[in-house]
Structure formats: structure tokens, C-alpha cells
């Protein structure tokens, strides 16, 4: 059987979908490719089974739903390229969720579609984080969680334990009175963990003496295609950005066997390109119509991404794919608030008493930066998310003073 998938039109705009799927596959690797036994398709290293398989499966479903919800909300505000790592964002939120109580906890759980059992949620993150620290051999896939805590904020022992045991993050005490030094230290750590792909996660002036904690997740991936493109076959070709407009871009070409599926309900063709080791793949979604992207976007919000992945079958196809590089910077406070996570960002309503025992903390910023490059050899992706916890009581006192 032979098919023809030519010029992935609108792939730039679609990259959030690709990335949603990509990072469900890549950065939540566990979910779609590994089973309860920890097995995977032939090739690559052997991975142990998950200690909490059902919890990981539940977290996978939660992330899929959160990915689509977040994409839908971001796409309403932003035209053009859109790229983010749902795994990185959810991990940073997960560390914050561990200290949330009351309505703040309920809103976070609802927006992220998490289990009612917080222990189950943290166990799942523990398995995923541990899994990503295993030497995979054929590719690089790693994540790092960091907590920078003010010397004026004593953490509850239980919260500190969750950070250490579930997220493999050791809280480092810092002095936010020297906020610029702390900012540079955090940015340097993120840059190191992402192989210099994510720089200046925290912008100048974002931290101050009222900052009580910064929670950071960094994730990095680099892999080579199992079926690499030949550079000699890359040439400039029309890339359609709308039904009537196009630009010339370097287009890679490959005729080979790939896993593919035409989804009539979605109105799109789904293509998976495996990386060496066969454990991970990048997934592309091509609308049937040149102007059909908006319709596919709306349907993806209710599409079971795991089920879509299971329907893929190996077929010989011709693939033309743009060679591209993307970088994205997002401040997610307004977006997450509009999704229903309101109290977390309100200085009078937030309940993060599970962090220090006091109810005077709220989240002021959620910065997210992401990078993706796709070329003939493979792809490289990285992302980092930083959440700033502020002490509002001091701010109020300062205002009144």
C-alpha cells in the first residue's frame, strides 16, 4: 500500500498540536509507548516497569486533556507559531499543587484533570521523572526540577519531603534581597539542563525581596530519526500558510515506511516518525483541507490522543516536511486563570498553606520558554517553566506604610 503525504501545510501553526502530541509522546514518553510491564517496541534499552502503572496511566490521560485545553485557550489569543511543553508546565504546577489547599487545590485539580487522590498524582510524577533520568542510549531525554526557597520561608517538612521524593527536587535556600544574583543563578541552571537551548527563562526585574519561592522544571530532548532525510533531497518549496497564501521554505523529502492513519472524524492524516531506538516518535497532523486547520484544532480538544496513536499502521509514504526552528516565550498566568485556576494567582484568595503552614502566599508569575528544531538528522526540543511564589502580607504592609 502506498500513500502520498506531501507538504505538511500549516505545520508551523499546527506545531502546538504537534507539540501537544509530540510532548505527550516525547516528554510523557511513558504514556503511549510503555505498557504495564515496562516493555517497548524492539530496539533501545530495557526499562523497568512502573511502580505505579495505574497512576501513570491516569496522569497521561490528564495531561492529554490539559494539553488540548491549554492549546485551545492559547490559540484564541495568538496567531502564527505556537509551541509549548505541557509536561514541563504540568510538572511545575504539580510541585505547586502539592502545597495547595481548599478551593485553590480544587481549581488546580479541575483544570489539570487530576485524580482526587493527591498521593496518586505525585506517585505518577515520581515514576515519570525517574524514568526520564534513565540513560536511554539512542537519544537524550532528561528533566530536572528545582526549588529556590527564600531564607524567610521555612518549608513544612511534609512539603519538603514531597519535593525530594516525588519530584527529585532539593530545596535550595537563597536570599531574594539579592534578587539579581538569584535570577542569574536560576537561569544558569536552566541553561545547563537544556543544553544552552533555553536562556534567560526569568527576565530582569521579575524577582524581588517579596519573592518567597521559585519552582522550576526544565526538560530536554535530542534524537535522531530512525529514517533520516537526505540533505540532497531538501529544496525550496511552497509552504501554504493559508488557503491563498504561501511562502518558500526548505522542504525535506523522504520516501519510506512510516506509521500513518487517516482519521475521517478528525478530518486529518496522522503521521508518526520514529526516533532511533523506536521508543519515541514525533507525531504530525495534516488537515485534509488546506483551510481545515481551525476545524482540526477544535476537534482535537475532544480527541483521545492515546487512541489516535494506537490506530497508526506502517505504510510506505512520501513525506515532505519543512526544516524549521521555533522558540516560544509565554507568561501563562492569564491563560491558566481563564481556564479556571483563579485563586492561585490572587493574593487574597490563594491557599498555599501546605507549603509553609501560613496562608499568605500566592503565585505571581508562570514563565514558560520552549525550543524546537527539526532537520534532516532528527530533532531537538527543550522547555522550562518557572513559577514565582510571593508573600502578599509584606506587600500589603508596604503599601499601607
Automatic annotation (TrEMBL):
SUPFAM superfamilies, A to Z: Serpins (SSF56574)
Entries under Pfam families matching the protein: Serpin
Keyword tags: Membrane, Protease inhibitor, Serine protease inhibitor, Transmembrane, Transmembrane helix
Keyword rRNA-binding: no
GO cellular component, one term: extracellular space
Ranges of residues in domain Serpin: 68-399
Top-level taxonomic group: Eukaryota
Keyword Transmembrane carried by entry: yes
Gene Ontology molecular function: any one: serine-type endopeptidase inhibitor activity
TM annotation in the entry: 12-33, 82-100
Family: Belongs to the serpin family.
Protein's name in the database: Serpin domain-containing protein
Amino acid at each position: 500500500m502506498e500513500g502520498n503525504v506531501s507538504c505538511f501545510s500549516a505545520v508551523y501553526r499546527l506545531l502546538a498540536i504537534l507539540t501537544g502530541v509530540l510532548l505527550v509522546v516525547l516528554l510523557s514518553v511513558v504514556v503511549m509507548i510503555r505498557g504495564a510491564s515496562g516493555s517497548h517496541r524492539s530496539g533501545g534499552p530495557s526499562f523497568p516497569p512502573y511502580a505505579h502503572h495505574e497512576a501513570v496511566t491516569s496522569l497521561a490521560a490528564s495531561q492529554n486533556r490539559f494539553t488540548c485545553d491549554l492549546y485551545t485557550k492559547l490559540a484564541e489569543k495568538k496567531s502564527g507559531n505556537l509551541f509549548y511543553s505541557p509536561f514541563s508546565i504540568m510538572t511545575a504546577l504539580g510541585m505547586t499543587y502539592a502545597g495547595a489547599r481548599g478551593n485553590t487545590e480544587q481549581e488546580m485539580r479541575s483544570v489539570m484533570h487530576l485524580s482526587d487522590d493527591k498521593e496518586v498524582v505525585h506517585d505518577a510524577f515520581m515514576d515519570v521523572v525517574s524514568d526520564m533520568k534513565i540513560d536511554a542510549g539512542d537519544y537524550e531525554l532528561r528533566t530536572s526540577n528545582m526549588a529556590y526557597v527564600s531564607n524567610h520561608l521555612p518549608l513544612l517538612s511534609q512539603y519538603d519531603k514531597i519535593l525530594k521524593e516525588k519530584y527529585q527536587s532539593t530545596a535550595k535556600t537563597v536570599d531574594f534581597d539579592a534578587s539579581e544574583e538569584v535570577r542569574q543563578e536560576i537561569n544558569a541552571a536552566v541553561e545547563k539542563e537544556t543544553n544552552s537551548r533555553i536562556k534567560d527563562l526569568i527576565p530582569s526585574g521579575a524577582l524581588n525581596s517579596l519573592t518567597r519561592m521559585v519552582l522550576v522544571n526544565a526538560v530536554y530532548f535530542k534524537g535522531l530519526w530512525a529514517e533520516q532525510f537526505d540533505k540532497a533531497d531538501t529544496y525550496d518549496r511552497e509552504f501554504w500558510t493559508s488557503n491563498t497564501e504561501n511562502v518558500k521554505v526548505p522542504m525535506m523529502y523522504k520516501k519510506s515506511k512510516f506509521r500513518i492513519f487517516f482519521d475521517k472524524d478528525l478530518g486529518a492524516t496522522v503521521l508518526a516518525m520514529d526516533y532511533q531506538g523506536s521508543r519515541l516518535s514525533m507525531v504530525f497532523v495534516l488537515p485534509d483541507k488546506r483551510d481545515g486547520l481551525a476545524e482540526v484544532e477544535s476537534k482535537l480538544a475532544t480527541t483521545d490522543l492515546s487512541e489516535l496513536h494506537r490506530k497508526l499502521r506502517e505504510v510506505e509514504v512520501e513525506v515532505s516536511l519543512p526544516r524549521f526552528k521555533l522558540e516560544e516565550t509565554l507568561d501563562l498566568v492569564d491563560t491558566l486563570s481563564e481556564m479556571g485556576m483563579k485563586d492561585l494567582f490572587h493574593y487574597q484568595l490563594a491557599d498555599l498553606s501546605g507549603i509553609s503552614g501560613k496562608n499568605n502566599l500566592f503565585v505571581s508569575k508562570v514563565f514558560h520558554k520552549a525550543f524546537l528544531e527539526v532537520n534532516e538528522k532528527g530533532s531537538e526540543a527543550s522547555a522550562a517553566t518557572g513559577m514565582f511564589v510571593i508573600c502578599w502580607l509584606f506587600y500589603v504592609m508596604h503599601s499601607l506604610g
